[in-house]
Amino acid sequence: MDVTLLKNKKALMFTVLVAGALVMLLGRFFTAQERVLENGDSQIPIAYVPQTPPADVTDIRAVEERLEEFFTLVEGAGKVRVMVGFTAHRETVFAMDIISSESLTREEDAQGGNREMRQTSDQSQTVLVPDRNGSSRPLVLRESEPRIEGIVIIAEGGDSPLVRAELTRAAQAVLGLDAHRIQVLTMRSE
User: Fold this and answer.
1) Residue 93 and residue 49: Cα distance in Å, rounded?
2) 125 with 96: CB under 8 angstroms?
3) Which of 6, 20, 31, 146 pairs with 48 at a CA distance of 20 to 30 A?
4) Rounded CA separation 184/161 (Å)
5) Which contiguous run of DSSP H or E holds residue 36?
6) Would you say 117 and 105 are in contact if contact means Cβ atoms under 8 Å apart?
7) How far apart (Å, rounded) are the C-alpha atoms in residues 140 and 92?
């Protein structure tokens, strides 16, 4: 067997193993889960997709470093730096009970003129459900954590269209991003 072919097979196997490890590491950020909210005797399923980024900046940097290690394995990429961008906020949507009312008043004056007044009002209140302890808590419809919005990959080989395409495909596979959210740039020579 040719030595070059053997090296390519080993590099490919290593790349697949690293990609699998990254998918498992980042998998918890992108998995859909279903939560069941207990409401007395009944259960209300609430579907949500938690896309929890790492807890702090050091965890984010750890993810970026793992991606850098992974992307440097792409042939021709050379040295690689990565920056991952997250949304800045967490969102929780609560169930609301909305009560709307409308009243219509018609008046006639002594000269035969008519006037019509319409008044509407909306009141909303958060829906509360009992928990196991007997106290009430708001009914959560959806929770979304900050999620990955985009990635910038700066590679020594970023001037090659082939390397750019390979890095873009790798980022799409690992992070589940659309191509327009991935930028591959050429690293300046020092």
Assistant:
1) 13
2) yes
3) 20
4) 10
5) strand 33-39
6) yes
7) 7
Query: How far does the chain reach from its first CA to its final CA, in angstroms?
Result: 40
Please count the residues of the chain.
190
Helix axes of 3-30 and 57-71: crossing angle, nearest 10 degrees:
150
> Which of the two residues, 60 and 125, has the higher pLDDT score?
125
Dmax (CA) for the chain in angstroms is: 108
Left (φ > 0), alpha (ψ -120 to 50) or beta: where does 40 sit?
A: left
Cβ–Cβ under 8 Å, residues 68 and 82: yes
Residue 82 tokens read as 């990565």
CA–CA gap between residue 49 and residue 34 (Å, rounded): 8
